[in-house]
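Tutorial handout. Part one gives the primary structure; part two gives the three-dimensional structure as tokens.
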Amino acid sequence: MNPNAHDSAAAWITGLGIIGPQGSGRSSLDALIDRPRACFSNTPSEWLGHPGTPDAYLGSLPQSLHTVVETFESVSTDRSCALALCAAEQAWMQAAPVCDPFRAGVFWGTGMGGLHTAESSYNRFFSEGLALRPMTVVRIMANSAAGHLAIKYKLQGPNHTYSVACASSAIALGEALLAIRSGRVDIALVGGSEAMLAPGVMSAWGALRVMSTRKSAPNAQLACRPFSSERTGLVIGEGAAAFVLESPRHAKARGAKPLALLSGYGSTCDAASLVHPKTEGQARAMHLALQDAGLQALQIGSVNAHATGTDAGDVSEALALADVFGKHCPPVSATKSLHGHLLGAAGAFEAAICVASLQRGLLAAGLGALPLDPRCAHLDVVTGAARLAPNLEAVVSNSFAFGGSNVSLVFQRAPV
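Part two.
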């Protein structure tokens, strides 16, 4: 283990909140790990009349959570913002921090901010000929969630929003780690939220020809199959995950106990293509994260892969993992096959799975990886059922985005 992981080199995670296709709260996440299932539904039939909207699988919130989300909605909150408020409340209540408001900040990620409001406003203006509502602008803006979180919890330090496609909330976590290390803040409310499930947005994703559809996949349980030779594409989901990060000094002073540690952050850009991933950039992000955490590749017990279930993405990441870990690649979890791709919230959502794995000594399984794509056959993909890992000490979580942005994070088991 890295001897510096328990001091100022790492941030302590003292609170965690989550809401997504699997449900709300930590118990819903544990249940998904214990009983892997694809939390997918079909595109609503009324959407299919719109041009280009695919008959695809979606990772939408369960019906039972609609009233929960509504309690966080207001005239100034888009659905994405409401999800952020829900996840953040769980994390803040668990951490129960007492802090100097000027040394506490918000670091939030979202891919496209208030798209629900944007789409409904376009329809209202162009199709219905109606004037837009007074709070339309603040509902759409990408930093709306971060602003709401700062107001709710009186956090008067830095307030930053990162919009870097699928790497957004992973970057938020990494930048919060740097801010805590540098002494700029003692505590950070960090995470990501995304709510893109609307007919126009789905039509746009459908045009990219990367989505798993009911025509290509036999059923919802096999809709997303990362690393498999029988993959059919990705599934778009919605949700949010939030964390309270603290400096060890601040957490110890108030008697807080960490759930896990965030100890490494690597970030690169391919600078080659907006949509086609590059193995070299992904591998370098992992190398940098390990170096930042002060760990060797052999000390990593698991990787939560970006693993969207697309041919280019899966193969590029598989090659990057071989570059970093060689013949000793640790077991790989590909959990988007369960909850879908939460886009800007994906990094934070999958970080929550890493925290749960470290706490429980249990590697999350995906579904449908077998038969493996021959180009990915060197990977030990955890599939079907969670795998016991009682000596799990450190994990890597990958988030790779359109625009060529690559982020890797290293999480470590909390000190006893």
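Part three, for discussion. The longest strand covers residues 11-20. The longest helix spans residues 79-95.
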